[in-house]
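Action item from last week, closing it out:
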Amino acid sequence: MTVITRYQDAPTKTIDVNSVTYAYRQLGPDTGTPVIFLNHLAAVLDNWDPRVVDGIAAHHRVITFDNRGVGASTGTTPKSIQAMAADAVTFIRALGLTEVDILGFSMGGMIAQVIAQEEPQLIRKLILAGTGPAGGEGIKNVTRLSHLDTVRGLLTFQDPKQFLFFTRTTKGRRAGKEFLARLKERTNNRDKAIALKSYFAQLAAIHEWGLEKPSDLSVIKVPVFVANGDNDRMVPTKNSTDLARRLPDSELVIYPDGGHGGIFQYHREFVPQALEFLGR
């Protein structure tokens, strides 16, 4: 069987479970514990940085997917992080997997925390990037920031992610342009953009997460690697520090002059660090 090594070559597959068709892609060696990628607000399969996916997939099977109601997956997008976590578990189990590593970015990191609390036996290791705990500082402002930077993007003919994910320094702007160019490398079989209704459901879920009472993160016993840029506007960086402090077995990396998309800006540093963490 040919091993797919590049994300841009990974075919989009589907699996049906509970009247929902989940769209997903898979690449890398078919051995060891697979790494499930959980995506950010408004993201579909094509929003993962191919340098991060390909880098991890050089040593691990990587599976990316559209959660319920997102992109090419059917059904209605839930309005809570907890329901999204339940759907992610349903998808993982439908693939016949009993133990996985999870890389959760932003909203995906929130979903990952719930899975780790609700289904601890399912997770071996956890990578939480650009994310924060329930009730974390500033998370309830994501809706306002997203709307604001979407307007900024329209007015300046730029992708809102240039503002939301990267700093406004020379280095940050350049990193943003390079990241957005990488997202266009796949030309065949691209995913459907998220529907507005699903986007607003996700915003509602993140807003509720930001208003929740802090949960007991000490119940998450698995090793956790926490990463972020030092200037995250979407999920303020102090949330990453807070996560690392409250998780019993964690390590923290903060990238200088990095924004919300720090792991994409610093993919050359992040990928080896993630691989070392997963390989221990």
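Closing note: The mean pLDDT is 95.
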